[in-house]
Amino acid sequence: MQTINMLPSLLELHLSSCELSGIIELVNGLSFWCNNSLEELRLGHNGLDGELPDLLGNFNNLRSLDLSSNRFYGPLPKSIQHLTNLEVLYLNDNCISGPIPPWIVNMLRMKILDLSFNQINGTVPKSIGQFRELTEMCLDGNSWEGVIAEINFSNLTKLGYFSLRLSTKKQYFHFHVRPEWIRPFSLKYVYISNCNVSSMFAGWLRTQKGLDIIVLKNVGISDTIPEWLWKLDIEFIDLSRNQLFGKLPNSLSFSSTTFLVDLSFNRLEGQLPLWFNAKWLFLENNLFSGSIPLNIGDSSSLEVLRVSGNLLNGNITSSVSKLKGLEAIDLSNNNSSGDIPKNWNDLHQLDVIDMSKNKLSDVMPKWIGERMSSLDQLRLRGNMLTGDIPEQLCWLSELLILDLALNKLSRSIPQCFGNLTALTSVTLLDIENDKARTSYSNRMELVLKGQVMEFKSILPIVNLIYLSSNNLWGQIPEGIMNLSTLGTLNLS
């Protein structure tokens, strides 16, 4: 550090993820030697702690400051108001507290402002609306109060990225703009969750022609989805956990780049729609009725289909077998009946099958173990399946969750269950590099100790075998004792 501190013409200093300590000493040295030259300082992801040093305000030519993912606490020091050339400020993922001070209006050159996931409280200052150069604003995970309104965006003509994700529903914080509001910007990304927006659908989004991502999750919308929304060229849309009602278009073709559509936990009704090009489609916990469309196999882009918790009935169509890229299917908590389609054995990429709590009356299929080698979750609880548990299930080397409880299965448990190799090794959870799959695909209800629990990010390490409430008899396979990472075994 002494060497760095003696570089009087230093323009940029990048020390992110270097396990640094002693922020005060570092800033003291830098402010003495290169306070007039330094334009960019990156100290993110170091675990630095303490209050932000006042001497940060001495770097009067600083344009970019990254202090993210440390353990800084306390209020923003007044000296930062002197950084009038600052264009980029990353303070996210710290423990900074107190309100945003009024002097933030001095930073009129700000282009990127990330204050997310701190302990900042109070109101969002109206003066932020004067940041004419601002392109990205992230206010997630703080304890905001009051209202964020049109005036907060009044001159943000260059804003393209806005994020306001709160950890839980804040009844006392409102995002309030008129439905007819004419926005001054053209957003590409908007993410708002767990705050009160409006009971009416956000009409101001209609003019945002360049939108790629829309998330309005748990924001109190009680309205139908307007037709114009489906005409936008969107890659990612999440309107889950609102009170949306009405019917969806029966047939719809999204852009070839559309990745996810999440309309779960609403009150949508009618036939299950047949939509094309969407890769992940989440429609669970609504009021959809009737059978799964016979030609659902034409939605060839589908990788994840979640329609649990609806009122679906009838046989499960065999055309699902045409979805060659399907990785996960969740049809649980419906009234589907009949057999499990045998031609599903061609779905070689399928990782998750959940058809629990239906009225399936098939003999437990052997082909699941023979042809679905990548399967890591098989959930068929609460049906009327008969026959024995096939030994072929032991061939599923990736299997972590097996739930066959509450059926009519008989005979003994296969002795080869000790060969379920995925339950003999530790699963490493890489949340940072797989955020989309962790947040959306890997969420599921499981019954543990008689309680229905929803798992999300830790689902890959929830390892269990449920065979309870069947007609099984005989000895428990000794090999089960070798399943060292098995978390729950229920044979009651």
Q: pLDDT under 50 segments (min length 5)?
A: 429-440
Assembly of the depicted chains: single chain
Q: What is the radius of gyration computed over CA atoms, rounded to a whole number of angstroms?
A: 27 Å
**Strand segment tally:** 37
Helix coverage percent: under 10%
Distance between the termini: 63 Å
Q: Number of DSSP helices?
A: 3
Description:
Helix content is 5%, strand content 29%. The longest helix has 11 residues, at 23-33. It is built from 3 helices and 37 strands. 41% of the residues are buried. It is mainly beta and 492 residues long. Mean pLDDT is 87; it is low at 429-440. It has a 20-stranded parallel beta sheet that branches.
Quick tags:
492 residues; mainly beta; 20-stranded parallel beta sheet; six-stranded parallel beta sheet; 3 helices
Provide a quick synopsis of the model.
The protein is mainly beta. The chain contains 3 helices and 37 strands. The chain has helices spanning about 25-35, 365-370, 435-440; strands at about 10-15, 40, 50, 65, 70-75, 90, 95-100, 110-115, 120, 135-140, 145, 145-150, 160-175, 190-195, 215, 235-240, 245, 250-255, 260, 265-270, 275, 280, 285-290, 305, 310-315, 330, 335-340, 350-355, 360, 375-380, 400-405, 410, 445-450, 450-455, 465, 470, 490.
Write the layout of secondary structure elements.
Layout: E1 12-14, H1 23-33, E2 40-42, E3 49-51, E4 64-66, E5 71-74, E6 88-90, E7 95-98, E8 112-114, E9 119-122, E10 136-138, E11 143-144, E12 146-149, E13 161-176, E14 189-196, E15 213-217, E16 236-238, E17 245-247, E18 251-253, E19 260-262, E20 267-271, E21 274-276, E22 280-282, E23 287-290, E24 304-306, E25 311-315, E26 328-330, E27 335-338, E28 352-354, E29 359-360, H2 367-371, E30 377-379, E31 401-403, E32 410-411, H3 435-441, E33 444-448, E34 451-455, E35 464-466, E36 471-472, E37 488-490
Parallel strand pairs: 1-2, 2-4, 3-5, 4-6, 5-7, 6-8, 7-9, 8-10, 9-11, 10-13, 12-13, 13-14, 14-15, 15-16, 16-19, 17-20, 18-21, 19-22, 20-23, 22-24, 23-25, 24-26, 25-27, 26-28, 27-29, 28-30, 30-31, 31-35, 32-36, 35-37
Antiparallel strand pairs: 33-34
